Amino acid sequence: HASPHPAGMRTAFFFAILAAAAGAPRDGHPTGPGHRIHHIRKQRANERRRRLEQREHVAKVQDYLASPEAAAQHTKLLDEVKKMNVSERIAAALVKVIEETESHEVHAEFGRRLSAAPGAPPTPPPFFPHAWDAAELGYLDTHFSDAGGSKGGTLQYMIDTVWIITAALLCFFLQAGFGLLEAGALRAKNAKNIMLKNLMDACIGGLVYYCFGYAICYGGASRPDGIDGNAFSGGGLFKSTKPYDGEAHDGIWFGVDVGMDTGGWFRTTSNYWMLIDVEEDEYYIFLFQYVFAATIATIVSGAVAERIQFRGYLIYSFFLTGFIYPFAAHWTWDPNGFINSWGICDYAGGNAVHALSGCAAWMGAKALGPRIGRFVEGTSKSLVTVNFKPVELAQHNVPMMCLGLFILWLGFIPFIGGSACYVNFQLGRLCVMTTLSGCSGGCVALAWGYMTEKHASLEQAMTGVLAAMVGICSSCGCTTIWAAFWIIAPISVLAYRFGLWFNIYFCGKFLGGPVDDPLGASALHYWPGVWSMIACGLLSDPDIWDATYGIEFSGRTTKVEDLTLDDFSGIFYGGNGMQLAYQLLSVVVITLYGLASCFLLFYGMKLCGTLRVPEADELEGLDATHHGGLAYTDTDVHIVPAGLRLRKKKADMDATKDGSESPEGTESHEA
């Protein structure tokens, strides 16, 4: 109908879309990327099961229609129509129309009777089932009720896809922010080196996460029987006897379901390596999760800058993105992960991303040792007295750093807002919280700079913004905006400052020598990430927690039926401290795992001689010694390859010998 108020119609339609997009999480509790992925897979498994049942029903209906009973029904219907005193030709046409009209209802009713009595042959349905429920006729469309299909989807699915892809693209732009921030914070002689490493983080990260990283994170079919993963890696640990396809499956380890067939040969029943058995509906989630994984190696690049061998960097990027991070992500976000079963809050990776990358950054910097000239002989004191003096090495382009910061700030908003991998009621709140936390951290860090350096420090303000946003990555899912702005963000800045002191003075005094982290990556990501986990145990709002996660977690020592909201609430909200205990336990697990795995990785490369560049190369700069020349030049002379220089020299000698050299010829050669 035409509306006299088209603007009102548009407004109503707009709010209808928002209402659909902001509905409660469709998975129930809890929320997160792993749960969204498993939800999609269960939808697809149910769809396949229904299609198998439908094919069986159609075959049996066709058999019935070809049977003598159906022929008798047809004859009876024809006799009834003839009683209407119409010609035989008109009677036959009417019967055909009636039978075609009722065909779908025959199929639906026959299938319903098969489902009601699967062990006995159903009675033939009548040809006039006028009282049947119309819902039975929508059999083929039921699989679109909550997730998209290969040929369409609900409004909710389409909104989810558009939002998460947009968030992934903005998060991918984080690589540019990291590159600018790191290049500007280092010396000009290593600018090309650090930018190439950031580029390779994206390339190698995509390679390994596509090949096997995603399979380790979230591999394994989510089947209706509940056997859809194990606590250690992607896939099922126990044997499934009644999966949706009726066949027994062995457990899936590392994203590949491998078992033995009757002939004794290995077979694979599902394989998530290279996205082989990944549902089409979750490709957009893969894109977002790849961007998450690629940031791990990029964070570490700042800690090992200016002295790591390029091949050593490629090796650690490969293993960190392809193996070390995926296991931590599975434990934290997959519904079967053992940390996830504890009911911890790590909404956007304060523990699984930032604390883990902080451990990797610290171990890499420790294994490499300080840059030449970073520490000199002498004595300095900051709570403890050490027998060296730290020297601040030059930052070659601070405005470039600031531009990188703004890009990182922009990317952090969808990084946190898109972490659920669908549009939920948290989205707007998370985006506001992320933005305001950065504002709070910048102001606090600026004040810190005034107190310690006696001037307004741009560098201090920039690191404060980043530390504050890292500090809400875990706690954003269960805390309020005011708590993030006034408590969590300011303490995150202090946690970062403590990390810097720890690296230089505590490590210098008690751990064999100071840790030289050029960008402060280990301090910036580990300590605020840990504080974010602790903040959940202190400031978790029970109302927000219940709406986001619920209270049904099987991994706790308390039985599921005995859990209450007090077990998940922050201490300052009347909680009993259980949530804080499990948050700390998960931090300990990820920290020990990160330190142990990265110790083997970095010290293994050091033992093999593939970790640090020679001293002469470090002094000259990695751009000139490893990447073909400096990033910046102050002359227009082009440095040509060696072979071309030799050919030019020979041509000049021949011209001189022949006496044919001229000023024009010289200018030509120079050109």
Write up what this structure looks like:
It is a single chain. This protein is mainly α and 671 residues long. The protein is 59% helix and 4% strand. It is built from 22 helices and 5 strands. The chain has helices at 6-21, 33-65, 68-82, 88-101, 103-116, 155-172, 174-185, 191-218, 283-301, 310-333, 350-368, 398-417, 427-453, 458-470, 481-510, 521-539, 542-548, 578-608, 615-620, 622-626, 642-658, 663-670, and strands spanning 252-253, 256-260, 266-271, 375-382, 384-390. The chain has a 3-stranded antiparallel sheet, with no helix packed on it. It has a two-stranded antiparallel sheet with strand order 4-5. Strand 2 and strand 3 form a beta hairpin. Helix 10 runs antiparallel to helix 18 (578-608), helix 12 (398-417) packs antiparallel against helix 13 and helix 12 (398-417) runs parallel beside helix 14 (458-470). It is elongated, with a radius of gyration of 32 Å.
